[in-house]
């Protein structure tokens, strides 16, 4: 066993670890960065970037299909080949991280390819080498898919997001387990390319963590586009046969469902083994980090691993905070109150802060306001594909918004204004006195404020 010293050891060079490691190395800190898969992590290779390339392609097809009755006629012939090529060549460089590794080492970081075992707050082991960190240990280990303990599932060649993103050719049919962000984004794209898609969701609605209006909206759109959606249908058994593909038995669904491929998208959990938590002195369950993202003195967990929201913008937000912490610079602590997230279905579902249910659970006196996109001038003009709404969640006593949803065309962009309102605690009276450009989708906020006012 050999030993190497460093000032800072970063375990996991995904979005969060790469950002911390790179920034510290550039600042002259002696950093060892350890990665067992690809530098860059899930987002560029199997997550945000390739999935949004797929979404863009699917949205182009959908827009073309909206031409009849609006602008003439169009013949749409989907072809997956340019999408797969774009993912391989432009997004992932054929799943090769040479450029990212070079970026880190050019900045002065020391790169180690391998799996790190966390031995203690200042020690990790990779193979036969132990690395000690004099100034800090940063855990940026991301998440891994949760595979539910369904009878037979583990013995089948099911896909996670990796299989669905790497596909060079599309299957004729796909069953998606889980009606959350991954399942719905990928399921809708596949369906738009002609795949027969069935979504099976255990909860009583898809997008169960979002507003019920969002679940209803997206289910309605997906069904109109030809997907089959089963909700309240926990799967009890999965089998696979080389000739006939997958057979899925789900409660409340008559007979078995059959498809060529099965995508399991039932959530993700932080890649931190219980032994790691105990080696660091963290409790086995509950909040892992404090508001400085510390697990223990000079040990931080950031990005997906911190359990505060599995989004790339959380990873980079955390990275900035921990870089400041390690360099001894002042700055605000982490505040996840106004965390935004966008599910890139079409229509997009942008959410910031608390849903109505979460605000009520938090004991707030809640009022809501809602405006359907189709009832705004812009939505009416837009016509085909104008499904959506703006929903505001207000803390009546404070006179401020604590959450909002912007679902619809460009819902993620409309969300920007609402994120400012929740983050900066803008009084509702200020939002009401603003001028909203006409005719925009974000003018739906103005209309939803009127509904909120009329609700009291
Ligand atoms: C299909 C999909 C679509 C997504 N779309 C979006 C989106 O549109 N917008 C958005 O904001 N987010 C999206 N996300 C989430 C986003 O990808 C993650 O939030 C982001 O990658 C988190 O970055 P991270 O650095 O915390 O973790 P990761 O990117 O997971 O990186 C962690 C790295 O640590 C490595 N690692 C783990 N343990 C060890 C160890 N012991 N030793 C060495 N290396 C280790 C892993 O191999 C990995 O490379 C999506 C995710 C998926 C799966
Ligand atoms: N646009 C984005 O920002 C984006 C896109 C994709 C993924 N992500 C990130 O990745 C995370 C993981 O995505 P995900 O879609 O896997 O998780 P998710 O938590 O968003 O959705 C999982 C869904 O699976 C359901 N489910 C759980 N167990 C089930 C079972 N046994 N059978 C059927 N359904 C079951 C849940 O009720 C839930 O609706 C997201 O929470 C998000 O943080 C973000």
From TrEMBL:
Cofactor comment: Binds 1 FAD per subunit.
Summarize where NAD(+) binds, as residue positions.
178-185, 201, 267
Q: Where are the transmembrane segments?
A: none
**Domain of life assignment:** Bacteria
Q: Which cofactor does it need?
A: FAD
Cysteine disulfide links? 43-48
Domain FAD/NAD(P)-binding: residue ranges: 7-319
**Is the keyword Ion transport assigned to this protein?**
no
Q: Name one GO molecular function term.
A: NAD(P)H dehydrogenase (quinone) activity
Q: Which UniProt keywords apply?
A: FAD, Flavoprotein, NAD, Nucleotide-binding, Pyruvate
Q: Where does the Pyridine nucleotide-disulphide oxidoreductase dimerisation domain lie?
A: 340-448
For FAD, which residues are the binding ones?
A: 52, 304
The family line of this record is: Belongs to the class-I pyridine nucleotide-disulfide oxidoreductase family.
Its name, as the record gives it, is Pyruvate/2-oxoglutarate dehydrogenase complex dihydrolipoamide dehydrogenase (E3) component
């Amino acid at each position: 066993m050999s030993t190497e010293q460093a000032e800072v050891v970063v375990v996991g060079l995904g979005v969060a670890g790469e950002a911390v490691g790179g920034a510290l190395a550039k600042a002259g800190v002696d950093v060892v960065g350890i990665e067992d898969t690809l530098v860059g992590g899930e987002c560029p290779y199997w997550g945000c970037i390739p999935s949004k390339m797929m979404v863009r392609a699917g949205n182009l097809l959908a827009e073309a299909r909206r031409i009849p009755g609006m602008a003439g006629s169009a013949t749409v012939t989907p072809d997956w080949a340019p999408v797969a090529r774009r993912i391989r060549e432009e997004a992932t460089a054929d799943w090769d991280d040479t450029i990212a590794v070079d970026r880190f080492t050019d900045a002065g970081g020391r790169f180690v390819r391998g799996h790190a075992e966390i031995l203690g707050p200042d020690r990790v082991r990779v193979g036969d080498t132990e690395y000690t960190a004099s100034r800090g240990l940063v855990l940026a280990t991301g998440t891994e898919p949760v595979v539910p303990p369904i009878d037979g599932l583990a013995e089948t060649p099911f896909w996670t997001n990796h299989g669905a993103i790497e596909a060079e050719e599309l299957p004729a049919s796909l069953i998606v387990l889980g009606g959350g962000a991954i399942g719905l984004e990928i399921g809708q794209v596949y369906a738009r390319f002609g795949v027969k898609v069935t979504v099976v969701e255990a909860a009583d609605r898809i997008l169960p963590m979002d507003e019920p209006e969002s679940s209803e909206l997206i289910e309605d759109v997906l069904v109109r586009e030809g997907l089959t959606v089963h909700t309240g249908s926990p799967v009890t058994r999965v089998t696979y046969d080389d000739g006939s593909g997958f057979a899925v038995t789900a409660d409340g669904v008559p007979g078995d469902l059959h498809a060529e491929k099965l995508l399991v998208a039932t959530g993700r959990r932080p890649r931190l083994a219980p032994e790691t938590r105990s080696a660091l002195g963290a409790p086995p369950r509950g909040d892992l980090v404090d508001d400085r993202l510390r697990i223990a003195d000079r040990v931080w967990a950031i990005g997906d691993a911190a359990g505060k929201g599995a989004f790339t913008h959380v990873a980079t937000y955390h990275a900035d905070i921990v870089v400041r912490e390690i360099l001894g610079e002042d700055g605000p602590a982490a505040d996840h109150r106004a965390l935004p997230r966008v599910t890139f279905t079409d229509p997009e579902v942008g959410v910031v802060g608390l849903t109505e249910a979460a605000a009520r659970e938090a004991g707030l006196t809640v009022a809501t306001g809602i405006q359907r996109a189709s009832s705004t001038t812009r939505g009416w003009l837009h016509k085909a594909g104008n499904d959506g709404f703006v929903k505001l969640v207000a803390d009546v006593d404070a006179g401020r918004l604590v959450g909002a949803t912007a679902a619809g065309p460009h819902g993620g962009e409309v969300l920007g204004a609402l994120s400012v309102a929740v983050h900066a605690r803008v009084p509702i009276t200020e939002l009401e006195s603003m001028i909203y450009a006409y005719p925009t989708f974000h003018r739906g906020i103005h209309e939803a404020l009127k509904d909120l006012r009329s609700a009291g």
